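Quick question, first post here. What does this chain look like in 3D?
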Amino acid sequence: MSLTSVLKLNNGTEIPQIGLGVYKAEAGDEVYQAVKSALALGYRHIDTASLYANEEGVGQAIKDSDVPREEIFVTTKVWNDEQGYDETKAAFKRSLERLQMDYVDLYLVHWPVPGKFKETYKALEDLYNEGKTKAIGISNFEPHHMEELLKDAKVKPVVNQVELHPQLQQREVRDFCEKHDIKVEAWAPLGKAQYFDHPVLQELAAKHNKQPSQIIVRWQYQSGIITIPKSVHKERQQENVDIFDFELSTEDMKKMESMDENKRIGPHPDEFDYGV
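> Answer (accepted):
Ran it through. Tokens below.
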């Protein structure tokens, strides 16, 4: 078990279960150094998006690293104002140019834009069939969005990336995804550190001589969730993933599950302002 530990997706592609998210990492030097330090620490999964406006720095850091491109799993996403079939194809081309790559490992529909996400996904299917992305998926899709998508999808999404942390455990989404062989990936996996003082986290951190962040990442790892904790600081990047020398017991896992309050940090997908 290490940062190279992978999960097999429904199309046979393997994804490192723990990666680095770069949301809000500033374009230029900040994101460049964050990706370089993560790769040096052994991370092999980097998650970006056109919205983050830092794809160039991500691509440059990967290009300048000693790690071969084929050993790094790169995710990017199509933003809401780029959705629609032709628009998505054009947005993907721009992402590839910014990343300085000829393919990505995973391309996601960032949010289920009403009236558009199905034709957006059709573009992803074509990009997949053309070999420009090794896998395709979705983000922030509720079960009813997924039901609608699966009616016409010819290529099943491999992942659904959603807000997921101990106070928002997304049972309904996870159950639907499990039933349909779609892996769940967590964004804001640490709950933006808003409740590290929670008694359960404090108790388990003391028991295992670990930090609250490490307890959370370990819980997600043992739950089979793909997780992408974000940090631009090398020490924190190391700390977040120092989770392979201990294990949460069944009782510990139940305690973690008791923290669920259905409490969101970001917007609910059905209440998001899509501007349409």
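The longest strand covers residues 73-78.
The chain has a mean pLDDT of 95.
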